[in-house]
Amino acid sequence: MAEMLGLFTETSMVELLLLLATFVLTSLIGIERQFRQKSAGYRTHVLVGLGSCGFTLVSAYGFAYVRDPGVTMDPSRIAAQIVSGIGFLGAGVIFKGRDVVRGLTTAATIWVAAAVGMACGAGMVSLALALTIFHLITLFLVAPAVRKIPTVDRNRVLHISYADGQGVLRQLLEIATTMGFSSSILRTRRTGDEQKPMVSMDVRFFGHPPLRNLVPHLMDLPGVESVIVRGSDSNEDDDGDDDDAA
């Protein structure tokens, strides 16, 4: 009777073990996102993985007691729909503002969680385990090492001239911080006259986005007179070929 109701079948133990493997592996992925305080954390990744595993199990083992014996099933059809549908969930965690795109890594981890669930549902636990291990290695070991690779902007300094007494510096630093840059002010000096007091500043910005994304936003600020990109923190009289005026 229980078998007829679908409460326990000959594949139930396998299905439960595969769901358990999905839960453990996607929990590792979700804990990493939760630790980094991302918008899609532990619950999202575990539920995506369990749902993907469940759909794959239904595709592989389902309908055995409701279909005619001579009917053949294609277990890949539901799995293909998972791949298409999970994209909508991943797109929901991607945000764009001030030329900075955020959430791509979280969206990618949702894809990985879905793949782990599908692999477990298909009985490919070794593949699911490998996916989880490579995922954690990428985010915990490789990504921090890649961030330390010097970029072309590492020696570039922005020479900025702006009006004094208008709160321009605060706005400059606020925009840079919003776009993911940290700053180090190398030198400042007052220029201009009493009628038009100006400040000349050399500042180095550090961040993963290209420096060229920051310059237009600084130029648009009221009170900013000029922004010059220099190849190094050389003095103002250096007329090297690396200078770009904006």
Description:
This protein has 246 residues and is an alpha+beta fold. It folds into two domains: 136 residues, no CATH class; 89 residues, LOR/SDH bifunctional enzyme, conserved domain (Alpha-Beta Plaits, 2-Layer Sandwich), CATH 3.30.70.2690. Helix content is 48%, strand content 17%. It contains seven helices and seven strands. The strands form two sheets. A five-stranded antiparallel sheet has the order 4-5-3-6-7. Strand 4 and strand 5 form a beta hairpin. Helix 3 packs antiparallel against helix 4 and helix 4 packs antiparallel against helix 5. The N terminus and C terminus are likely disordered.
Structural class: alpha+beta
Q: How large, in whole angstroms, is the Cα Rg?
A: 27 Å
Poorly predicted parts: 1-5, 233-245
User: What is the count of structural domains?
Assistant: 2
Overall residue-averaged pLDDT value: 79
List the helices and strands and how they pair.
Layout: H1 12-35, H2 42-61, H3 76-91, E1 95-97, E2 100-102, H4 104-121, H5 125-147, E3 157-163, H6 168-178, E4 182-192, E5 197-206, H7 215-219, E6 224-230, E7 244-245
Antiparallel strand pairs: 1-2, 3-5, 3-6, 4-5, 6-7
Helix pairs in contact: 1-2, 1-4, 1-5, 2-3, 2-4, 3-4, 4-5
